[in-house]
Amino acid sequence: MKTDPRYEIIIYWSDVDQAFIAEVPELAGCASDGASYLEALQNVEIVIQEWIETAQEMGRTIPKPKGKLMFA
């Protein structure tokens, strides 16, 4: 199964980690980092694929992408 590119990815700089952090809010615990914005994005795309594969192997439900999430 190929990674679904429709999951929202939030990327931000972390002073604590001295790296860009990429999080996927719809997939619990799915996050990665990188020295650059692009590296964080590339890394999290791999982690999304691994997250989905692991969930499938464990028989867990994989959330459908909802697109842009709204926070109040």
What does this structure look like?
Pfam families: HicB_lk_antitox (PF15919). The chain is an alpha+beta fold. The chain has one domain: 2-Layer Sandwich (Double Stranded RNA Binding Domain). The protein is 29% helix and 19% strand. The protein is built from 1 helix and 3 strands, in the order βββα. A 3-stranded antiparallel beta sheet has the order 1-2-3, covered by helices on one side. The longest helix has 21 residues. It is globular and about 35 Å long. The chain starts with 9 loop residues before the first strand and ends in a 15-residue tail after the last helix. The mean pLDDT is 90.
Short description:
With 72 residues, the chain is an alpha+beta fold. It contains 1 helix and 3 strands. The N and C termini lie far apart (34 Å).
